[in-house]
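Dear V.,

Thank you for sending over the compound details. I've combined the ligand you provided, S-adenosylmethionine, with the protein sequence from our construct and run the structure prediction for the complex. I'm sharing the raw inputs here so there's no ambiguity about protonation or stereochemistry in the SMILES, which I know was a concern on your side last time.
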Amino acid sequence: MRIYANEREGQIDFFEKFGIDYINNPVLIDNTDGVWNGNILEFKLNLSNINKTLFQAIKYLSKMRIKGESVPSNIILVGLNAATAYIFESKDYFNDIHTIYYGAASRNNESFIARTEPRKILFDTQIGAFQLRTKLKECNYMPIEIDENCIVGWAERYYREYSKATKGDFLGDDVTASKTIGEIREPRLFKGLIIPYKKKSNEKFKYLMDKLNDHMHKKDLGAFYTPIGYCQKAKELVDMAIQRVPEGYDYIILDRCAGTGNLEAVLSDEQLSHCILSTYEYYEYKVLCERLGDKVRTIIPPVEMEDTYDRGFVRSADALSKEFIYNPIIKSYIDNPCCTVILLENPPYRDDTSGMTGIKSKDKKVKSFVLEQMKANGVKKTNELANRFIWSGFNYYLRQKTDSYIVFCPIKYWKIDHLIDKQFIKGFLFNKKYFHAAPSAISCILWSNENAKLTTISLDAYDMVDDVAVYNKKMVAHRVQNEITKIFDQVTKDYLTIPYVCNTNGYTIMDKDGSFFDDEILGYFVGRGFGISNPNLNFNLLRLKFSDSHGFYLTADNYYNKLPILAIKHYLMFCRNWTENEFICCSADKGMAYAEDESFLQSCFIFACLDYYNKCLSMELSTSGHKRIVKNQLCFDGTTIANSKLCTLALNDDEQFLIGRFTKTLAEAKKVPEYNPAFSYGTYQIQNELNTFVYDDRGHKVYMHEELNTAIETLREKTYEYFDKYIKDKLLKYQLIK
Ligand SMILES: C[S@@+](CC[C@H](N)C(=O)[O-])C[C@H]1O[C@@H](n2cnc3c(N)ncnc32)[C@H](O)[C@@H]1O
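Below is the predicted structure of the protein with S-adenosylmethionine bound, written out as structure tokens.
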């Protein structure tokens, strides 16, 4: 019998012995020791506690169910040194597999006791090896129960494996007009893997409807649902809005994009009796009707007709369509002068540049009516779907000064887009992390329908602990008047004939032989918008012109004053606090005032020439039939313009230290065979071209030049510390960040 020194060695030997090709098949998945056909394997050198090891395997199966992976029907525990295998059946641990576990699967397993006797196989005998091999060939799975813990995992798998599938194909029930019986109720792809879901409606999944959307729906609906803690905060604003209703008036609370009704579910019965709700997505509409239908004033449409179901949408419920805007039920309240209107909405947010929304016969999408109206009224910022809701909310529904709008939306619509100039009453800032999205700030504001030109508004930021909103801090939003592009240089000389064009990663996408390259050009700065989202795409310092021309050239005359723009990008990219993300942005409200501050310019220059996100490269280009090298001039390698400038500056200790770190990095880079001595290298090019790596069999990066990688990581860390110490606060002082 072979005695193994470690588990890994024994595991590999086992795989080889039993013909388990773990290299070409997904065997080592989800941190397990291996899944092969309908078997999950757990290896130990010595199986000193079978109960404990069994529980560890059960926890892996529990995780697999949640992720939408087929749950193997056999659990095989292998004691490598004794060549013993203990085989359990997953179905005997059905409830344990349907429990949710937190923390590492290998921890806190001591108290578990197996409920069944395993089958024991000694696999160092011929008969034992035969029996185990036969077992390993079995492809049986334990059908699992679909519940709110695992349905998202199975939906994602469904849409992945069946890319044309719709939400109805997955969720459909026999009570809907579509009469599509969904996969969860009548499994076809997942036959034998899931137990048919028996409940008539999908009400149980009300907080997950966004996560269950198919790819098309996800794109079209821009849906992120409000968690209960934040719904309760929004209710405080609803209470305030109701207090504004004049004596003797009726009021309605209108939500045109109510989804499954999360915002309303926390309202009192009295408040609910004033609600008019609607939503566009069909399966949400069904849940909305079941959840709140008998409590609210009405849902639009009030009852389901033969033609209500329209390929996953609710006919006539597109809130941005003309039909909906002039809906007679809503209109009857709007036209009533003794009725106050309170809008309560968390509208979809997504960029809809095409302007197409909604459905029309023969799969043709219709141009949004609201969009056309906004354009006709000279509104510029129309791409964002939420802007269309907010604009139409004020324009078609609110008429009196005592009308209110409580709206969830990233603050951009007020701060940058200047979509509305209304009276602010009270507002919160919430963390989008709890809306099934990345951590960032979303405002929830109670606006009064009175005109007001405000320059700042103050919002209370709330995080969330155990589903309860918890106060974090006060955040002041300052309106931005001038786009950052105001400090961009105008193109004074016509370089535009140069046919070299590069991508946002700095590499050429067009390099026409025989073309001309002007040595005066040191780089090209691209900047679009206010950089509130995706600064790495929207702001770039490149060696060549970018393919679209929202930018300007850097030359020896202007580069020193313009490099602070790279520091702005850094601030926007690395504001890790959710309260700042999608809340702060760049501005040119103080123009070039920063350029008077010599020490700020020096800091930004040193930072920019060391920063990884300075994407200037050295490269070989063809010019008039000759190959020539265009060097990166904004780095500290060799004879560059940046190095000449550096010699003229008096450096403090931190700066000398940083330059020392770069020199060390460069020394390591020069040891790499691919280093080209004709080039000058900045951090970005060293990282991309010289700091090479491979992936190990677990998918982790293994760097080929450890010292170089270490030097780069240290340089990056120290550059960021330098930014924090010398640059960060001044970006705010000069209102480059606002
Ligand atoms: C951000 S979610 C908010 C849902 C719900 N009010 C909540 O807070 O949990 C936006 C909702 O708008 C719906 N929606 C998207 N486009 C719509 C449209 N054109 N008309 C009506 N509803 C729409 C989505 O299906 C989604 O339910």
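A first observation: Residues 484-650+727-733 form one domain.

Warm regards,
I. M.
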